[in-house]
Fold:
Amino acid sequence: MKRILLVLAMVLVLLSASMVASDGVYPDKVVIGTFQALTGPVAPIGVSMKKGIDAYFNWVNNNGGIYGRKIELIGADDQFNPSKTVVEVKRMVEQDKVFSIVGGLGTPGVLAVMDYLNSGGVPFVYQGSGSSILAIPPKEYVFTVQPNYITEGAIAAKYLMETVKAKRVGIIYRADDAGKEALSNFSAWLKDNGYPNALVQSLAVDPTKVVFDNEILKLIDAKVDALYMVMWTPQSPSFLKQAADYEFKATMVGSYANPDITLIQLAGEASEGFQALAWVSADAEAPGFLKYVEIYQETFPGEIPNAYAAAGFIAAEVFAEGLRRAGEEPTREKLVKALETMSGWAGLIAPEITYRPFDLDDTYCRTGVQQMYIMVVKDQLWTTLHDWISLAD
Structure:
């Protein structure tokens, strides 16, 4: 009888351990996954974003973890290829049994795995994408942070018309879901706010294109005086250098993936005066920013984190805050409920974020940041040019 009881006890222990391990929560750690392009053309963004995530979680772990559990991060290189994203994310969920996916990079990849994660009840916290599809309509397990292209496209149009006082505007955008959404909302704001004829040139470009002679000549021919650029490295610095060669003088404002030292390094003097939308708090004298740099340099001594590292840092910080609020015995459902309690929460460099209980009729219950500001390259440094812009203003 004792032997039977002992066997039953062992079976119960094994079953209990299996149940705990099945969602990535162990007595001493929580296992989560992430994906970025760590090789290929988009690697400068992906590598930096991963560094930001690593830095924050290393700091958490070095300070005792969360309720004594360390955060173990499994990273995947999807090379900005959505087919590879699907394979890697399924591996992490089904084989590695991760608790959550945190900080996936790139619109193609995050959209490719969004429904899989949501239907499987796997929390997906922070996506390196501005696609509104992630949050509208809301998905119970998908929490966005970055502004979406509904917000950015409209704010870009508002800024160019009301602050820059542009007369003839153009847009050049990547011919992908993100670019098309930015175009739609940029042009919609112009039409809805009394500028139906302001958009005189709209140019879609292949996401791999780096030679822009034809596009620049079309913009010059259309007498464009302000341009919204929905591109990023390596396209943006290539465009700026070629625009300088053609002496294209329009005010150029890039999407929020642009305000990074890498663009200045690649474009050189051609970047001077280039403007970009931004959403990460970047006051170098603010206590939160100084603490952020200190935490980052504990893992990467002497290195100044760039904008993409900041994105990764924020992704990790949002997840960790949710995990703390989920309590000493976290589950995926508890994490979701915990994130929903974040109302007006701000991190060291993240502006205010508010989530609400999941409700299909609440369009913005999973939407992140909804305001942006403008930066400019001045004397080969990114500098704040214009304060926060909200569509509600």
Notes: Confidence is low (pLDDT under 50) at residues 4-21. The chain has two domains: 2-147+286-362, 150-278+373-390.
